[in-house]
Design brief:
alpha+beta
Length: 291
């Protein structure tokens, strides 16, 4: 999959035709996945020079993902979009001096016209302009793209595991205070979700869960009676045992982790399995991996 085959007409900040790419940002991502699947390892390993072909596939996939990352930046970073305006580069994209109108008919201040608008103010102006020009679908895609660019690969796997509504146990270990309250935390958000998702960095699962909750993609609810056995298994995990042993008077708190309402909408928009020809599968747990 060469870069020349990437979809044309993709989103670019400052362009007037934000919706020219019929598939949108996530449609493009799905197409990249599908193309990789159709030209992937199954074919390469049956051909002479399989290792060379496999390395080439990896190279092309990395190049495609780099390009996709640049396009996401273009969609979601108003600061970069403002700096790329022709006025900042000495071009003629904005109307001359002394105010007037831009090429899109919107009014422009004399500072903007002279290319003197400070970058932070220009970025805010970019956002305000988009708030006027975007329809519901563009606004929704922009919102989800901002969240998507913040996710680590392991976090994406964990969200995929949560996407079918399955609950997962979460425990926190803290010092018990002198009056029976809660003192300092030694461990937050330990969970078996990492093992179920087959993450690469199992020690970082508590951090991943904190981030998923901070992004409102997942939420912690009360302890679930149906997960009692899973809580006991989780308490026997090394990371949790070490935290308990480090506390003079350990206090264990239990929660249940689920995908949030926003997380559900986000996953429905980004789910690569909904793209025809996609190669991603949620059936990824590897025995003995995760935490």
């Amino acid at each position: 999959m060469a870069l020349g085959q990437l979809p044309a007409g993709s989103y670019r900040s400052g362009d007037q035709g934000h919706d020219q790419d019929s598939g949108g940002l996530f449609g493009m991502a799905g197409r990249l996945v599908g193309q990789a699947a159709r030209t992937g390892y199954g074919l390469a390993r049956r051909l002479p020079g399989a290792e060379t072909a496999e390395r080439e596939l990896h190279r092309l996939e990395r190049a495609a993902l780099t390009e996709l990352g640049k396009r996401i930046d273009d969609v979601t970073d108003p600061y970069l979009a403002a700096l790329r305006r022709p006025s900042f580069a000495g071009g003629d994209g904005w109307n001359g001096s002394g105010g007037g109108q831009r090429g899109d008919g919107l009014p422009v201040s004399s500072a903007e016209a002279a290319g003197e608008l400070q970058p932070l103010r220009a970025a805010m102006a970019e956002l305000l302009e988009r708030s006027i020009s975007y329809g519901p679908e563009q606004a929704r895609e922009y919102c989800y793209a901002i969240v998507l660019r913040q996710l680590a690969p392991d976090e994406a796997r964990m969200l995929s595991a949560l996407s079918d509504g399955s609950p997962f146990p979460v425990v926190h270990i803290a010092e018990r205070s002198g009056v029976g309250g809660t003192g300092r935390y030694l461990l937050r958000n330990a969970s078996s979700l990492g093992k179920a998702a087959g993450v690469t960095l199992p020690d970082e699962v508590p951090h991943y869960i904190s981030r998923l909750c901070a992004l409102d993609l997942a939420e912690l609810t009360e302890e679930s009676v149906s997960l009692q056995t899973q809580y006991e298994i989780l308490l026997a995990e090394e990371q949790v045992r070490v935290a308990q042993e480090a506390a003079k008077r350990p206090k264990v708190m239990r929660n249940t982790l689920r995908i949030s309402t926003f997380g559900t909408r986000f996953w429905q928009a980004c789910d690569p399995t909904a793209q025809p020809g996609a190669s991603w599968s949620r059936t990824v747990p590897v025995p003995g991996s995760g935490a």
